[in-house]
Here is the input.
Amino acid sequence: MLSTTLARILVVAVLGSAVLLAQAQSQSVPKGPGYGNWVPGSQKDKKNDDPNVRGVTGTIRLVDDTLVEGAVVQLKNTKTMQVRSFITKADGVYQFQGLSTNVDYELKAEAKGMVSPARTLSTFDDRKRAIMHLKLENKKQ
Here is the structure.
C-alpha cells in the first residue's frame, strides 16, 4: 500500500516537472544578440515592412490538380527582362520575394513536357504577398 502511494506521488512529481520544463522552454527568449524584445532577423526586421517590396507564391498543378515536383517556374521582370527561376519540391510550391511594387512581372511554369499559360503580377495588384497558382497544359506545337 505504501509503495503504491509512493509510486503515484513519484509519477505526479515527474509529470509536473516535465510540464514546468516545457512551459519554461516555450517562454524562453531566443538566443543570440538582442536589444530588449527586439532580436535581429525577427518579424519586425523583415522587408515586408517596406511598402515598395512584395512577394508572390503559389502552386504548380497538372490538369487533374496533382501537385508537380520539379517544375521550373520563371519570373520575368518586364522592365529589365531579367528572369529568375524556382524549382518546386514535392509540395509543388514556388515563391519569389523582394519584388518591386513598381514593376510588372510575368510568371510561367514548365515541367514534364507541359507549360502553363503566362500570368502577370501587375503594378496595380497591391497585395504584399500575392498568391498565383499555375496549371500546366500540353505544349502547343
User: Anything to note?
Assistant: The beta strands are 53-61, 72-77, 83-87, 93-100, 105-111, 114-115, 119-121, 129-131, 134-135, 137-138. Residues 53-138 form a domain with the Immunoglobulin-like fold (CATH 2.60.40.1120). The helical segments are 2-26.
